[in-house]
């Protein structure tokens, strides 16, 4: 029996799709559990397929699934409904099942409104979905005289229709030992991992407190690092650790870091934490084990608004966490929320003041949204009398400001522009002010940190900042002051070339080559420097070290063409100074 696990597309496009493009971890766990129980399970990401029904139709026709499971967030629930409709049109006998956070809190709405959806799984989905598939398989997935209610009516956590009315079975018990789940990395390749399930926080804008009942369960360090090892062997070098609060259990985090180091995994990874859940010891271990970024929910500079959002953290804890994280060469990223109850220009200025104090090196600014399963949603329902029927509209969420007459849309948009402009204006200064711990054991990490940061100014998100080139140059040079760093040599060399300082570029690149003689990128960049100075023979001598490189071959052809033209015209190709001719571009 073919089972297709689908991550649907969202309603709206985003400026940065990173946070919504990844397939949720739950689908990989379900897929692994199905496969290890003998079922043909496949995962399909439909992210980015909005408006492409024919493409989806062709995929479904080719896969011919008997059961489709959808991982449904609030933002992609309409995608699930639309894909389910396509599937039903192709095969009315296919069983469509929704699971995930939106299905957990909107199962009654989804089953009551959309005939395209047959079943829902509320809460932790692995074993309920497996039991559901087993029950369907026992009927040949052709229920015949048995209704779906009769087939799945005994399975905890499953919702169905009984005589047209949505009904939810008793809740499935949480999995007591997460290591009982098959390791998804034996079956699939992905970048997002989680050590834990759950969060003890009480944030009013987040559904986690109700989804997990504020309880936290942990994988063992071995299980978690086994995933990394298997994925790394297949070429994955960067991981997103997606726990709500990765550092809740300090000893477990240190055990993970020790195991990464013991196995010699050369990886990088980013995590999420709370400002009151880190200290020097855990940050040191995380940095040594490859952590390069930690995101913290700061939310607001106003203590009153933080309390209103259920964010029980102090200004001092925020300041300490950001200073310590940066000190160990980990990029501290801040999440901020604006358009909150009681938001004014005064509270916004408090947030801007806090930004100047903590100097985040990356920041994400969100408008406060109301989502099912959150305390804020319950409050608005009670206050305004709205029901779950509101999700019958083609909306991803409800911006809080639309329910608050004191927060007109124009004001919210002005708040957002002001926050983003303020952060961007101060960013080069934040980068220059990064105070790193003076510990020789951390010098290679510091060089890596500074060169990564520099690259965001030379090639990344901040490359269009007016001060980007000068900031990147300072950061690359500072990185090399700590330790020879491949990225810093290359980045600084390319920056010099962009400014047509070809002699300086060649000097820094050749120094890098002394440390990394086999680096194709450093050698090719140096060759381009020679070409820009008219030193085609010297460039060829470098390029010929890489006979199997297409880029080297292309540059070599340019050199030979230039030498031939020089010979034909009796022009001396070698120049002593900077090249007066049109510069050759260096590949980034």
From TrEMBL:
GO molecular function: 4 iron, 4 sulfur cluster binding; catalytic activity; cobalamin binding; metal ion binding
Cofactor: [4Fe-4S] cluster
Signal peptide start and end residues: none
Span list, region Disordered: 566-588
PROSITE patterns in the cross-refs: B12_BINDING (PS51332), RADICAL_SAM (PS51918)
InterPro entries (alphabetical): BchE-like, Cobalamin-bd, Cobalamin-bd_sf, Elp3/MiaA/NifB-like_rSAM, Methyltransferase_Class_B, rSAM, rSAM_horseshoe, rSAM_sf
Keyword Endoplasmic reticulum found: no
Keywords: Iron, Iron-sulfur, Metal-binding, S-adenosyl-L-methionine
All copies of domain Radical SAM core, residue ranges: 185-420
Stored Gene3D superfamilies: Cobalamin-binding domain, Tetratricopeptide repeat domain, tm_1862 like domain
Compositional bias segments (type: Basic and acidic residues): 571-588
Ranges of residues in domain B12-binding: 8-143
Classification via CDD domains: Radical_SAM, radical_SAM_B12_BD
SMART domains: Elp3
Family annotation (Pfam families): B12-binding, Radical_SAM
GO cellular component term of the entry, any: cytosol
Protein's name according to its UniProt entry: Radical SAM domain protein
Organism: Desulfococcus multivorans DSM 2059
Organism classification: Bacteria, Pseudomonadati, Thermodesulfobacteriota, Desulfobacteria, Desulfobacterales
